[in-house]
Write a structure and sequence with these properties.
The protein has about 425 residues and is α+β, with helices and mostly antiparallel strands. It folds into 2 domains: about 260 residues, no CATH class; about 140 residues, no CATH class. Helices cover about 35% and strands about 25% of the residues. The chain is built from 16 helices and 21 strands. Strands 1, 4, 5, 6, 8, 9, 10, 11 and 12 form a 9-stranded mixed beta sheet that branches. A hairpin with a 2-residue loop joins β4 and β5. α5 packs across α8. The two termini are about 20 Å apart.
Length: about 425
């Protein structure tokens, strides 16, 4: 049972803090040093100041907490009544305008596999430790987990539509139009809670943040904290045709050497291999991979600087059991990202699952342009570029339902959800039973 509830959100007061677009920031894990500096310069109240505080060691978490609490006083307001926050993102991709619709609320925190919240990706130890320290210091949920639920008729939208009056936030940030509404009508809130009560929740993005919230919940419950059992989440419709999933490419580095011929020799038992000139543009590369993957798993491999790549397509006679993958659930046995990791990265290149979790030998690029540039470059530490297709939403759901997980960074739901929409102040919630 998905137990969701409204809460008294902490939001930027635009009359005090100004244009919301100057206060938002992308998820912390997609920001480099230059990007952080640019965001910080936009406003003293930009959320980056506490979501990704400056400095080294434990002191930076306390610095982030102090900045957050200072902004609470000078730039934010806590809503006086519990609400769900309906949130729309309007964006353009590949020449087409789309709108992703969802809402923000609290969900009862249950470990993956022990309740209605299901994971589809493995997580990395480092990010969880980092986010837990920040959560401890700030006593707040600052960043949103992104979850999906199945609603083929979009009934949830019919329920909340009558309550969408004036928005509480509207701005354009990162070439995306963001709009936020409060929904606090008790009857509509109750109807939405009932509608989601029997739903499974599939984590689309934010596995690390969700696991961190669960870990912090355990700590808070030991202290008798009232608000410990719930965490902040953005929920959207799994069946919405406007959902956009983009690929995440892998770049191999740090190995004693990479012999592509050896990799392709291992791959030949499971894949048909075509050697070609590296596509000239990211668009043509994506189109080539989509065509290759129209009938099954496909990906591309390139040694940087050679101007060539190999396109691998799963053979029609592929036998998962003969390939040693019989122990995997059916949802993973023919999935391109799982096959890349199991058959090539692990077996052919010797990158263990532990090394994958620690990102010892892998980098992840969401930008096809940047990955293609890395494949064209010389004199870098990149040894192999692995170009991927996006994982279809249906496969994400199937993996979740199987109880298993994909390798790290298997999906990239676009667009990302920025920081700065609304926050859940655990310190205040501990004193207020409404949340």
């Amino acid at each position: 049972m998905a137990n969701i509830r409204p809460f008294c959100g902490l939001r930027y007061d635009v009359e005090l803090a100004g244009d919301p677009a100057l206060l938002m920031s992308p998820p912390y894990d997609v920001i480099d040093a230059r990007g952080r500096a640019e965001l910080a310069a936009r406003s003293n109240d930009n959320s980056i100041h506490f979501v990704l505080p400056e400095g080294d060691g434990a002191a930076r978490y306390q610095r982030g907490a102090a900045e957050f609490r200072a902004q609470v006083v000078r730039a934010m307001v806590r809503d006086g009544a519990p609400a769900f926050y309906v949130y729309h993102q309007r964006y353009t991709i590949e020449g087409r305008e789309r709108t992703r619709r969802g809402f923000i609320g609290l969900i009862e925190l249950t470990r993956f596999g022990a309740g209605p919240v299901l994971a589809h990706e493995r997580t990395l130890a480092g990010p969880k430790a980092d986010r837990l320290e920040l959560m401890r210091a700030t006593e707040a949920h600052l960043e949103l987990v992104f979850g999906l639920f199945s609603d083929p008729t979009a009934r949830w939208e019919d329920l909340v539509r009558p309550a969408l009056g004036d928005d509480v936030l509207a701005c354009r940030f990162d070439d995306i139009d963001h709009t936020l509404w409060r929904v606090d009508d008790p009857a509509i809130v109750a109807a939405l809670q009932q509608h989601l009560a029997d739903k499974k929740i599939y984590i689309a993005d934010g596995h690390h943040r969700y696991e961190t919230m669960c870990a912090f919940r355990d700590e808070l419950e030991q202290r008798g904290h009232r608000g410990a059992a719930f965490g902040m989440i953005y929920l959207s419709n799994l069946d919405d045709p406007e959902l956009t999933v983009l690929p995440t490419h892998r770049l191999v580095h740090g190995l004693p050497g990479v012999d592509l011929e050896r990799v392709l020799e291992v791959a030949a038992a499971s894949f048909d291999v075509e050697r070609e000139a590296l596509p000239a543009t990211a668009a043509s590369l994506r189109a080539r991979l989509l065509a290759a993957g129209s009938q099954g798993a496909a990906f591309g491999l390139a040694i940087p600087g050679t101007g060539q790549w190999a396109v691998l397509r799963l053979r029609a006679d592929f036998d998962p059991v003969a390939a040693g993958l019989g122990a995997l659930p059916a949802a993973l046995q023919r999935l391109d990202v799982a096959l890349l990791h199991e058959l090539l990265l692990e077996r052919a290149l010797g990158i263990s699952k532990a090394a994958q979790e620690a990102k010892t030998n892998l980098r992840y690029y969401k930008s096809t342009d940047e990955a293609l540039a890395a494949a064209r470059a010389t004199g870098t530490d990149v040894q192999l570029c692995c170009f991927m297709n996006a994982t279809p939403v249906a496969d994400v759901r199937a993996v979740c339902d199987s109880g298993q997980v994909m390798p790290q960074k298997s999906t990239f739901f676009h667009p990302k959800i920025p920081n700065g929409l609304v926050f859940y102040d655990l310190r205040a919630a501990g004193e207020d039973p409404r949340g």
